[in-house]
Amino acid sequence: MVPTIVFVTGNANKLKEVKMLLAPQAGKEPTFELTNTDIDLDELQNSSLEEIARHKVSQAQSVLPKGTAVFVEDTALCFDAFNGLPGAYVKWFLKSVGPEGLVRMLEGFETKKAEAVTTVAFADFEGQVHIFQGKTRGKIVQPRGSRDFGWDCIFEPEEGAGKTYAEMEKVDKNQISQRSRAFALLSKCLNDA
């Protein structure tokens, strides 16, 4: 029987995407089973993405049975014009002003460049915490494509052939996204263990 690893999320879209990213390569047996739990974790007010993720996984460890392998994921959108803001606060900005409001924030600024960053904090079966981070450069554009997944409709990655994340097929997005890069590092850790 393969061990179970818990992903702390209540977001069905995020869970589906992460299951795709951590799926074993064709012809290989899974080395773990991925489940999820929806734990309400505090949002640490900090500009360090690593510290925010570390705090969240520590909280999850304190709630789950001892010895449970668990990971959390936190994604930020960092505008060059704002020296990295809204960063980890993008979820709250998006909730308050929507995608159009995020775009309007950059009116008057010459650069629309941005960086999408995903930080994964994984606590292994012994409780040791590992941090993995993936980054994708791009720019902020007027909303295009589906609005089902946060700010995907306004982020056009440099490697995206002129499409926003929301306009891309999942398989294409998963080849270049910051989330796929962070989870590739987690996958390597899980499979090398």
UniProtKB/TrEMBL annotation:
Its main location: cytoplasm. It catalyses: ITP + H2O = IMP + diphosphate + H(+); XTP + H2O = XMP + diphosphate + H(+); dITP + H2O = dIMP + diphosphate + H(+). This is Inosine triphosphate pyrophosphatase. Pyrophosphatase that hydrolyzes non-canonical purine nucleotides such as inosine triphosphate (ITP), deoxyinosine triphosphate (dITP) or xanthosine 5'-triphosphate (XTP) to their respective monophosphate derivatives. The enzyme does not distinguish between the deoxy- and ribose forms. Probably excludes non-canonical purines from RNA and DNA precursor pools, thus preventing their incorporation into RNA and DNA and avoiding chromosomal lesions. ITP binds at residues 9-14, 56, 74-75, 149-152, 173. It comes from Lachancea meyersii CBS 8951. Coiled coil: none annotated. Its cofactor is Mg(2+); Mn(2+). The gene is HAM1.
